[in-house]
Each structure stands twice: as C-alpha cells, then as structure tokens.
Design brief:
It is built from eleven helices and 14 strands. The chain is α/β, with parallel strands linked by helices. 39% of the residues are buried. The protein is globular, with a radius of gyration of 23 Å. It folds into two domains: 216 residues, Rossmann fold (3-Layer(aba) Sandwich); 67 residues, YebC, transcriptional regulation domain (Alpha-Beta Plaits), CATH 3.30.70.980. Strand 1 and strand 2 form a beta hairpin. The two termini are 29 Å apart. The strands form three sheets. A six-stranded mixed β-sheet has the order 6-7-8-3-9-10, with helices on both faces. A four-stranded antiparallel β-sheet has the order 2-1-4-5.
C-alpha cells in the first residue's frame, strides 16, 4: 500500500540554524502517527513543510501523492490542519466559523450545509452551534478547530499539539475523536509532548534538536531500553535525587511522579547501590522495585544515546 506521507532526508535551515536535520519516515493510510519531542525540537517546522507552507532546504518527499517541492499547492487541498494556535474567529459563532472555512475550501452551499451538520454532530457541538466562539471553553474551541480542519473531508489530518493547555478530560475526549476518524480511514499525524498521548499512537517518531532519533510502535521504542529500571520511592525526594545522581553506575536518573526511575546496566547490583547511597544521606526508602520501561524512560534513554552518538 502506497504511503500517504513519505519523506527522505528532509531538512530545513533558517540562516545558519538547522531546525530540521535529515528526517526520514513514512506514514501508512489510516495510521495515527505521532511526532514526540520537547518544544523546539522541530516538530512544527516539519509539519509546515509537509503542508507545503515551507519549502525544504534539502531532502525529498511526497504527501497525499504530491511532491513536496513541485506540487505544494496541490497538497493543501488534500489535507486538514489544526495549528497550535487556534485560527478561529472569536466574534463569530461556531456555525459562522465553519461557514467561513467552508467558503475557503470551496464547498458548495448544499455540500456545506450537509458537512456542517455532520461535523458538529461528530465533535458534539450541535447544541452550541450558535454560541459565540469566545464564550466556549478551551476544550470546546479545540473541538471546533478540529471540525474546521476536517470540514472538506481531507484524507490526511495534521494536528499540531492540539491538546496543549486543556484539562485531562477534554484531552481524552479529543483522542476519542481521533480514533473515530482513523476508524473511518483518515490518516492522522499528531505532534505532542505528552507521553500519555504518545502511547495512543499506532507508531511514533522521536525528535530531538531537529533530528529523528528513533521510530516504531510505543512497544518497540520501550523495548530499546536495555538497562534495568528501578522505581524508588523515598521519604525525601530531592535528597534522593541528588544521591542517585552521584552513583557512577547509574546511567539515567529522572523524577517520575512521587518517586524516581533509576537505570542501571543489567549486570550492576542497582538495588544495593541505591540503598547504600540513600542511607548515607539519611534518606529512608518506602519502596524500591524493578519496573518495566515506560515511554518516558525510552525517550530519556534514546535522547541520551543520540547526544552521545550511540543510537
């Protein structure tokens, strides 16, 4: 099956600054494909190139069957885009916003009326269609922005950190919508820095400082962590963190909820080393146990390997 997105060596320079550095990946039809990385990693710049809004400095690719460089204008008709900053008009009602975007997409009046009813029902805003957009809660505005992006029935949706700043319930509702769209055959590329959202993707790429450092399913990425992970729950977290970071054999130390995750090579007696290091600082242990690597552990480990050139 032909990929919906396929890029090779995609690069973008702004003067002497390289924002995206030789990124290569492919996205299959109907996939929920995640871009995971911290703010400033190059996720949004990559999306803007895929949308035809930025010309690549190097590399090649095709989106929805069209060449990234030679057919930029044709790509725009085949995709929907929801940006980090909502492009809604706050002084218009929800329905008026959708009518405006329907005009931009060139929908006929009959088709627009049909799609308005369909997308409002899908995102759960039928009863709020005549509310001014500025009066809607952030989670509802988020759903309205999604409705505007898919009004023209694009086969490919780009969602750029769409749930940033909203509450957990609204985030879950939004992801339910993403699953419904994917089940209908829509391909979704979503950028996020939320690890729990990344777990919901079919496949992921991890990006750091403009470079793609790993890709695969969430399970495959977690399997790349070969060190043992110990979960540590001390009575004084800050002192325990400082003590764990002084253990030479500890390859990774990170705060994880109310405790720590500390990684050791498989042959190293991490439990004994941690117990001694914490006791030397007078820190008591409530719990110390091995755990399976999380996606956060994988991201920390793979980012470290990339910085050391060992990926």
């Amino acid at each position: 099956m032909q990929p919906v997105i396929e890029v090779e060596g995609l690069t973008k320079d702004f003067g002497r600054f390289r924002a995206v550095d030789g990124v290569s990946f492919a996205v299959s039809p109907g996939e929920i494909f995640g871009f995971l990385g911290p703010n400033g990693a190059g996720k949004s710049t990559t999306i803007r190139m895929l949308l035809g809004l930025l010309r690549p400095s190097g590399g090649s690719g095709r989106v929805a069957g069209y060449d990234l460089v030679r057919e930029q204008s044709r790509i725009k008709a085949k995709v929907g885009y929801m940006s980090q900053r909502f492009s809604l008009y706050e002084d218009l009602t929800a329905e008026e916003n959708l009518e405006f975007f329907g005009g931009v997409y060139g929908l006929s009046q009959g088709r627009l009326r049909q799609r308005l009813a369909e997308v409002l029902e899908l995102v759960g805003l039928t009863d709020r269609r005549r509310d001014l957009t500025r009066t809607l809660a952030l989670g509802l505005r988020q759903r309205l922005a999604l409705a505007s992006a898919m009004l023209h029935e694009p086969p490919l949706l780009f969602l750029d950190e769409p749930t940033s700043g909203v509450d957990p319930v609204s985030r879950r509702t939004f992801w339910d919508l993403i699953y419904r769209l994917a089940a209908q055959g829509v391909t979704v590329l979503v950028t996020t820095h939320y690890l729990d959202e990344a777990e919901l993707c079919d496949r992921l790429v991890l990006i750091s400082q403009g470079r793609l450092i790993a890709q695969g399913t969430p399970r495959e990425l977690k399997a790349k962590v070969t060190h043992r992970i110990l979960a540590v729950y001390p009575d004084r977290l800050a002192e325990a963190l400082a003590a764990a970071r002084q253990i030479p054999e500890a390859s990774e130390v990170a705060v994880f909820g109310a405790g720590l995750h500390v990684a050791f090579p498989p042959e190293v007696p991490g439990e004994a080393l941690l117990t001694r290091a914490l006791a030397a600082r007078g820190v008591s242990l409530r719990e110390l146990r091995p755990v399976s690597p999380t996606l956060e552990d994988a991201f920390i480990t793979l980012t470290r390997r990339a910085s050391q050139g060992t990926v």
